[in-house]
Amino acid sequence: MIDRIEYNVEHSVDYVERAVSDTKKAVKYQSKARRKKIMIIICCVVLGIVIASSVGGSLA
Predict the structure, then answer these.
(1) Nearest Cα to Cα of residue 15 among 31, 59, 7, 34
(2) Any transmembrane segments, and where (predicted)?
(3) What pTM did the predictor assign?
(4) CA dihedral 37, 41, 47, 50 (to 10 degrees)
(5) What's the half-sphere exposure (Cβ side, CA atoms, 13 Å) at 3?
(6) Which DSSP string do the residues of 1-60 spell out, in sequence order?
């Protein structure tokens, strides 16, 4: 019984270390994804402005 508890405690340390590592990776990926999303939104806005100005210019 005590051996089993000791075994579980030892493994829980490994699990916590792995969780910390995975959390750091997740934060890094989230930051990159946010940056990509912002760049896509900026490109869409610029494209919308270009299309709107070309349509507005051709109507005048």
Answers:
(1) 7
(2) 38-59
(3) 0.65
(4) -150
(5) 0
(6) -HHHHHHHHHHHHHHHHHHHHHHHHHHHHHHHHHHHHHHHHHHHHHHHHHHHHHHHHHH-
